[in-house]
Amino acid sequence: MAGSSEGGGGINPMHQFEVHSIVPIKLGSIDASFTNASLWMVIVVASVCLLLLLSSSKLVPSRLQSVGELAYEFVANMMRDILGDSGRAFFPLVFTLFMFVLASNMWGMINIPVLLHPFTVTSHIIVTFAMAMFVFILATIVGFVKHGAGYLKLFVPSGVPAVLLPLLVVIETISYFTRPISLSVRLFANMMAGHTMLKVFAGFVVGMGVLGGWAPLALMVAFTGLEILVAFLQAYVFAVLTCIYLNDAINMHH
């Protein structure tokens, strides 16, 4: 995570989330500049593509191929458990989302001073909301295409007393339309909070020096391990919720 020294050597933990223009591009009044966020999204996509290409280019299994197959089987098994055979058509989508979120989170954990200051694209709400909104719109379209107007039964819980039905319909409707918000905020908030915490402890280590900085350094190492686990879990949760939303649209389980 990129650092910044401001005001007498203090480290600004929020500096790592700033978006900077690399190649300024103006389309009338629209700013379409190529930024550090754009660059890291390209790096993430390229690294995932390279991993999958290299893991499938040899007849003799390698360790890299094992990684690719492990990721494939992990997502495939998850989709079979949630969607069954009805979700096979959506495997490319879910696998792409899982790998993109996972790679984005993991790249954000790598920091090589001077040479490489990564930018965690999933720590920005605009990125996570765009993905969540795409999933929401897709699931809604699939639901109406498959069930027609019958998809609206999703908002009417079965076996509910008639007196409670209006209230529950309102609750179900609000719950449904807040799906993209909860899906995007969960990922964005976890990544932003974790990276901010690590940067704060890094500031303690620098500020307290060699003798006094061992305690925050130990905590930073422990929190780094925890953040790597959170990076994987958030990719998994995003993929699982995508499968659940698609399952509601396809199988109408409610």
Give a verbal description of the structure.
By secondary structure, the protein is mainly alpha-helical. It has one domain (5-50, 87-251). Helices cover 65% and strands 5% of the residues. The protein is built from seven helices and six strands, in the order ββββββααααααα. It has a two-stranded antiparallel ribbon with strand order 1-2. Strand 4 (26-27) and strand 5 (30-31) form a beta hairpin.
- Stretches where pLDDT is under 50 for at least 5 consecutive residues are 1-9
Shape: globular
Number of extended strands: 6
Provide the helix percentage: 55-70%
Helix/strand class? mainly alpha
- What's the number of helices? 7
Chain-averaged pLDDT = 84
Give a quick account of the main beta sheet: strands, pairing sense, barrel closure. 2 strands, antiparallel
* N to C succession of SSEs: EEEEEEHHHHHHH
Q: Strand order within the widest sheet? A: 1-2
Radius of gyration: 22 Å
Q: Termini distance?
A: 42 Å
The percentage of residues in β strands lies in 5-15%
Oligomer: single chain
Provide the number of structural domains: 1
